[in-house]
Amino acid sequence: MATELPSYEHFNVTFPQEYVAHIETNRPKKMNAYFEPMWLELRKIVDTLSTHPSVRSIIFTGSGPAFTAGLDVKAASQGLLSPDGSKTDPARTAFQLRRHVADFQDCVSALERCEKPIIIILHGISYGLAIDLASAADVRICSADAKMCVKEVDIGLAADVGTLSRLGKVVGAFGWVKEVCMTARVFGAEEAAKVGFVNRVFADKEAAIKGGLEVAGLMAKKSPVAVQGTKELLNWSRDHNVQDGLRYTGVWNSAALQTSDIQRALLSGLEKRTPTFEKL
Questions:
Q1: Which end of the chain is more exposed for a tag (fewer CB within 10 A), N or C?
Q2: In the predicted model, is pLDDT for residue 224 greater than 80?
Q3: In this structure, which topology does domain 2-221 adopt according to CATH?
Q4: 225-235 pLDDT tens trace
Q5: Which among 228, 205, 244, 35 has a CA at the least distance from the CA of 120?
C-alpha cells in the first residue's frame, strides 16, 4: 500500500500493521514546529487516508524527542503574524485574515472529520498546535516526559484553530481549561491524565507508540462500518442534544444496519474465531 501514496515533504507516512497508518511529523531539527506548507500538507494526508480503503485507524506522532513546539513563530512573524505596514482598509485586512484563519482551522479539523479514528501520541515538547491537534483527534496518549501547554497567550493572541472550541468538551474540568488557556503554563502527563485530557500515560515515547499501535490494531480488527459510524455518531452527539443524537443515529443506522458485517461478527462469535471484514 505504501507505494500507492506519494512521498511527502514534511511528514513520513508508513503502515506498521494491516489497516493501520502512521503519520509522523518530520521536522525534528525545528522541534516539528509548523509553518503554513506543513499544515496544508497535513490536511492533504489526512483527507487521503480518510477515504483510503486499506486504512482503518491512524496513529500520529512527531519525529525526534518533541511532538511539536507548535507554530513556527519566526515563519509566522514573516507571514500571518507580520505587521501590516500597508494602508489597506482595516475591514479588508480583517476579511483576508479571517479567510486565512479559517483555512488553518480547517487543516486541524481534518483530524476530527477524518472517517478513520486517529490516535495522537504526545511526547516531549507538545505546545500550542499540539493541543489543537490533540483536541481534534479521537484518542490521546502521552509519554511520561510530555510537557504540554496552550501557548498562544504568550505570543499575544487567543488560540484560534481549535483548542478554545474543543478542549472544554474533551476535559470536564472547565475551570482547569480556562486556567491553562489563560496562563500558558506547562502541565505534565500526570496532570493531563488526572483531568482526562489523555487516556493513558506510558513510560517513554517508544512505549507510548507501542500502546497506540495496540489500540489502533484493536480498532482495525473491528467492522469498519461500525467503527467509522461510531466516530461519526459520537462527534455528532457531542455537539447536539440527546434527542437530535438519537434521531441522527436512527437515520444513520437505517442504512448501516443493512451491512453484512453484523452477520460476520455474530457468526464469528458463535464459532469462536476472529472475523474478517471487507474493505470500506
A1: N
A2: yes
A3: 2-enoyl-CoA Hydratase; Chain A, domain 1 (3.90.226)
A4: 999 999 999 99
A5: 205
